[in-house]
Amino acid sequence: MGSGSFSSLGVLDLTSSGTFGRSPSPHSNGTASVVSFSDGEDSIENGNVLDNEASSRLSPIREVLVSRMPSRVFIRTADLPHMNELVSQSRQSSFSELGEDELVDHIHKPSSTPPFDLEHDSNESWVALDDGNGKKAPLAEAAMEALVKTALDASTNKGMWTANKATNKILTKSDIWNNTVFTPCNQEKAVPVPHAKGTKEENEVLVWTGAWSHSYYGHELPAIRCEAIVNMSPKALADLLIDSNRVKEYNKMSVGRDDILILQEDETCITKISVGKSKPPMLGKTLVLSNLLHMKELPGGGKQAGYVIVSRAVAHAGDAEAAEDPKVIQSEMLMGLNVIRAVEGEPDRCLFINLNHLRSPMIPMWLAKKLGESSAVNFINDIRALC
Asked: Would 97 be classed as within a structural domain?
């Protein structure tokens, strides 16, 4: 999904400093600017200039308030049922020192006010993912944890999903998949798989379609769930999917994917904002996806249990320019999930679960389900071709 040139609102604007007024317009980024910088050297708080030495003595929470630039990346959270509880926990553990009048919309509490010029929905809930200086905003961890929990809950909720004809035939013909499909991911251990390596049956791809029970943004669009065996270690597959430089290896329509902001990168967790581009052969336009990508180990550790990767569309400062390009179609990943589970006794294999809930303006509702199913199967088979 996307390489190519980016405007000054891409990498540079996410990491550079600038001069921002104390009271931006409601359409600038959806947040009030608590602090401004006069010349990029001294911060201004409540009308008082803080020199660099004074700024360095601020607590991490105060540093967020004394920020060189407002947040540039935002995410929807209204449909995440765990969000309210996690926001409360974040406040208690990270910024309990702030009074109610110091809490900033999007930064310390979710807000229905949309960033930039997006349409307002009083039922929506937006939070900032970055603090404007290339670091996580105070509620970013809560948003990512809520996203992971919601996606994993959905992936194991049998009542949400209806098997397609081929999958229903496989599951009713034999109970061999019973100990594998819809197995909870909190067991901190590897799972059994029904077919031995090298057999014809190991190439099965199980497919379900489903619908969300909430009434928030995109709920009317179908979701797709796939489950299959991949002859690759959990770590190798996780590394493949999270590495933006390798997207073209398994996505033939991709013209690349660029990481525009890295929020965390270590051995057990990677969090970043990426912009991907693809060119479907018959569309004649470029599809663009601006996503949060968040990878972490499953409970029990990566080697013992596996990995989870979630993705969701974000609103960021570069979207406005892309929206004005008639050759570009902005699509949205409403919920993306890849669960890569370790297999009992076979470290070079994994059970791969893919869930996606996509919104694309060019795809009519009647076609979305059919295309979603075929695309998901092709995605898994293209990955298998690399094994």
From this structure: no
Q: How confident is the model at residue 140 (pLDDT cuts 50, 70, 90)?
A: very high
The pairing of beta strand 328-342 with beta strand 286-297: parallel
Domain that holds residue 188: 161-384
Task: Indicate the number of domains in the chain.
Answer: 1
Q: Is residue 235 part of a domain?
A: yes
Q: Which CATH number is 302's domain given?
A: 3.30.530.20
Tell me: the pLDDT tens digits for 306-354?
999 999 999 987 665 666 778 888 899 999 999 999 999 999 999 999 9
The pLDDT assigned to 320 comes to: 59
